[in-house]
Amino acid sequence: MPINLLYHDVTAAGADDASGFAGPEAARYKLTSEDFRCHLDRIANAATQQPVAVADGLPANESSWTITFDDGGLSNATIIADELERRHWRGWFFIATDFIGSPTFCSKEQLRDLHQRGHLIGSHSCSHPERISNCSAAQLLDEWTRSCAVLADIIGQPVTTGSVPGGFYSTAVAQAASQAGIKLLFNSEPTTSEFTVEGCRILGRYNIYRGMTADDATALLTSPVRRWRQAAFWMAKKAAKSVAGPLYKAVRKRLLQQAYAQ
Ligand SMILES: [Zn+2]
Known about the structure:
Bound molecules: zinc ion
Helix content: 40-55%
Number of strands: 11
Distance between the termini: 41 Å
Oligomer: single chain
CATH topology: TIM Barrel
Shape: globular
Order of helices and strands: EEHEHEHEHEHEHEEEEHHH
């Protein structure tokens, strides 16, 4: 099974809101340009092969890996793609289409350019719902169908890959994606196992957070123990959320705001 890394935006130090969604919640997943370059250098030294960037025939073995980016922030076009290409790599960019062309997100022209340079463009829904797993079946189908159509129109070919916003995966989310023509859907579950829902391949990804060291990010590719640790942490968080529910969310939000204000 491939190992899939999940990045978001890359911004200059102190300019978190320059790309992608604004605010402390989104900033937790943004890396500085220096950190990002450091990650890529370290990964390039350790990886035995280049990241895969073809949707058809994404190999199902453990030495293959992908590097994915969610949301469609401006930094995809202004920083990330150049850094990948410097290493002869290509990435997977998942775009929340309602934000295309707004100030901190990629424009249509930038997305077309990324596609022409060999990067993969996929859907990350239209509106990036706060919790997509709470949407009705009709809403889900609309989110996937319209976003794929918008992107297909931009890149001039069908869009058959997607990633689940916020990591709020559910079977209904996958069923709707499959009905919209998505053949390969990434969620944010830190796992190398995959399965299919109505013919759509569902793959997990390992999250990269702000402040994660280059060694740590590289270890996600090279060390089953490190991957297991992220999976264990994810399971614990999931359990805490289901027990504490809204309380967990409120406390976490307040802590984040405090950290961001400092
Ligand atoms: Zn997202």
